[in-house]
Design brief:
The protein is mainly alpha-helical. The chain has 5 helices and no strands.
């Protein structure tokens, strides 16, 4: 009986812990791609192509997991220091040990639109 339970536990993979929270987030691109992955997982959870209704139905779990991702990104960037010269700049000054990761946005274009915003 114990062997059966151990096999079941080995077969169960928590995608959030394994594929999202197990990553290192040291570029804005990495963070954005993981947010997109979370959006796609929750919006396709009904077995249909990505759907806004599926995402909204799971809004609480989606929000929790995006929050967990942001916390992980902050944790992975605690040592960053934009004031003492480790990184060139960011959105806001940051000392090592302080939460934040805006230094990852240095030199990223801010006004690139793939399509015109709708009114």
């Amino acid at each position: 009986m114990t062997e059966k339970r151990e096999e079941t536990e080995k077969e169960t993979i928590d995608w959030m812990d394994t594929f999202v929270l197990g990553e290192h987030y040291q570029t804005a691109y990495e963070i954005l791609m993981k947010i997109d992955e979370i959006v796609r997982v929750y919006s396709a959870a009904d077995g249909q192509p990505n759907s806004w209704d599926s995402l909204i139905k799971r809004q609480d779990a989606f929000s929790r997991d995006v929050g967990r991702l942001v916390l992980r990104a902050v944790q992975m960037n605690l040592d960053a220091d934009t004031v003492m010269g480790q990184y060139k700049a960011g959105g806001f000054p940051k000392y090592a040990g302080e939460p934040g990761f805006s230094h990852l946005l240095y030199n990223i274009p801010r006004t690139v639109f793939l399509r015109e915003p709708e009114d």
